Amino acid sequence: MGLTPTIPAADTARVCAVCQAALRPGDLACPRCQTLVYAQQLDALSKQAQELESTGQLAEAREVWRSALSLVPRMSTQAEWVEQRVRALDALLAQRGIVPAKPQDRSRWAKWLGPLAPIAVVLSKLKGLLFILLKAKFLLSFALFLGVYWSLYGAWFGIGFAVQILLHELGHVFAVKRRGMKADLPVFLPLMGAYVRWQGMNIPIAVRAEIALAGPFFGLLASAACFGIFIYTKMPVFAALAHAGAWLNLVNLMPLWILDGGQAAYALNKLQRGLLLAACLIFFAVTGQATFLLVALGMLIRLFTHDTPSEPSTRTMIFFLLLLFALGGLLSVIPMQPGR
């Protein structure tokens, strides 16, 4: 009892350790790649708390977990996970007849809110309602997304295209969840695409790259399935779906901005980026698919950016290369067909 949590010294680096993006004062996560600024400190606190839990010092472990909350973004997956750990320890301490002291910050909020404090407490407990709202956001955005493409290209293409994008996003969700982390349901933006919000604590760049490339991989499988249906049914709409899906997933491998290829490129050094650039030029020469030139241009730009990792991932490069080859090959054999 009376143990004070050991909080490691603050990270004073003004650039992200992964992508070298500039960090603003007060940033807890990189604005570009979402890497936690205090990842090393959080890892140390996590180990300290787990050691305390293993020796039965639950009250001390709880305080260490609480100290970690100041180092993670509010409303983030990491903050939610730490809060769940604190609540679990609260329950264990209550079973032993120990009532932990209430956090000071909560008392300050209660004093500031005055008579509104009970309402704030009630709202903070409505996590079930928040989950329903998040589900509604997914369903409503998907329905709107589907409706836009249905009205533009007809029912068959609209439904098929929306399902393909959904499968692409579920690839990211699957890759996140299989690593024990949490991911929100996809949110769809008509005429723009979709995204999945997820965060993890101290995630290696190679793992982030695999999560990013899981979307195009699932998209490749969806496009291949559409092409298989076209071969079986001879319905032109499925050829159009296969072509559109393969093309979009190939574009998404451009290593720029927030595209999946852009996130994966953080795990590649200059040599690996150069090899992928050469591969894109070869694939263009063989297939005639101009999209490879866009990916090659992105790789050329990334040769001159200062965001190469200290430990590049060969696995990421091979996965990236195979996706390029498979998507290019699929585009080469799919006949161009109208959407209706």
Summarize this structure as a short list of keywords or feature phrases.
single chain; 340 residues; mainly alpha; 13 helices; 2 strands
Can you tell me about this structure?
The protein is an all-alpha fold. The chain starts with 38 loop residues before the first helix and ends in a 7-residue tail after the last helix. β1 (187-189) and β2 form a beta hairpin. It has a two-stranded antiparallel ribbon with strand order 1-2. The longest helix is centred in the middle third of the chain and has 29 residues, at 205-233. The protein is globular. Helix content is 63%, strand content 2%. It is built from 13 helices and two strands, in the order αααααααββαααααα.
Q: CA-to-CA gap between the ends?
A: 72 Å
Inertia-based shape:
globular
Low-confidence runs of at least 5 consecutive residues: none
Portion in strands: under 5%
What is the succession of H and E elements?
Answer: HHHHHHHEEHHHHHH
Taking Cα atoms only, what radius of gyration do you get, to the nearest Å? 24 Å
Name the average pLDDT.
Answer: 83
What structural class do helix, strand and pairing data support? Answer: mainly alpha
Number of helices: 13
State the total count of DSSP E strands. Answer: 2
Helicity, in percent?
55-70%
Seen as an oligomer or otherwise, the chain set is single chain
Largest sheet: 2 strands, antiparallel
State the strand order across the main sheet: 1-2
